[in-house]
Design goal:
There is one protein chain. This protein is mostly helical. The protein has a single domain, classed as Four Helix Bundle (Hemerythrin (Met), subunit A) (Up-down Bundle). 70% of the residues lie in helices and 4% in strands. The chain has a two-stranded antiparallel sheet. The longest helix has 26 residues.
Length: 192
């Protein structure tokens, strides 16, 4: 297992730690950040989530730069992303910070695209991430990060940036999923 794959696996192992911290099983209390009270568990959870999300860029950069792209990496990297984002969104639903229907839309898109990728792989083709998919991922990361931080620092300006970012993430999720299916619709045609 090469370094990029180890980084990806580490991202997966951070997910249960993130969940345990976010569910505030230890009741760490609140922290005051610039006169704003945020549960310490949510601050630590946000740091773990942001760190784990950043490793997605790091493992990809190392894999491409040093020609360490492997089939295992092509499998694990998008899986790690989907698991991390799904876990964070489900925790946010549990905390009452995100409407469940938005999370259902995002997770449904991820399952659908994963299924489509399996069909594409069955034909012996590889489907790399497209620009819309990358924008979708970073829109989700930004939205989740701000939601975990209770809209910090935008709460001071009375701007609901967390909700705006979540809507942007949902829109890019739907658009990128639609684009992915539109560009690969021929996979559903039986070639005899």
């Amino acid at each position: 297992m090469n370094l990029p794959n180890k980084i990806t696996v580490a991202r997966i192992f951070l997910i249960p730690i993130f969940i345990i911290v976010m569910l505030d099983l230890f009741s760490w209390g609140d922290v005051n950040i610039a006169s704003m009270q945020i549960p310490l568990a949510h601050l630590i959870g946000a740091i773990i989530f942001i760190f784990a999300s950043a490793t997605d860029w790091v493992d990809g950069y190392i894999a491409r730069k040093y020609n360490l792209v492997t089939n295992l990496g092509k499998f694990l990297d998008p899986l790690a992303d989907k698991l991390l984002v799904s876990a964070a969104l489900i925790v946010l639903v549990e905390l009452g910070s995100v409407p469940a229907w938005m999370v259902i839309v995002i997770i449904t898109r991820e399952f659908a695209v994963t299924g489509l990728r399996l069909l594409i792989a069955e034909r012996g083709e590889v489907s790399a991430a497209k620009m819309l998919g990358k924008i979708k991922m970073w829109a989700q990361v930004v939205a989740i990060s701000v939601l975990l931080l209770h809209n910090f620092p935008f709460a001071f300006l009375s701007i609901p940036f967390d909700i705006i970012a979540l809507w942007i993430a949902v829109i890019f999720t739907v658009v990128s999923g639609w684009d992915y299916f539109a560009k690969n619709k021929d996979v559903f045609i039986d070639h005899k």
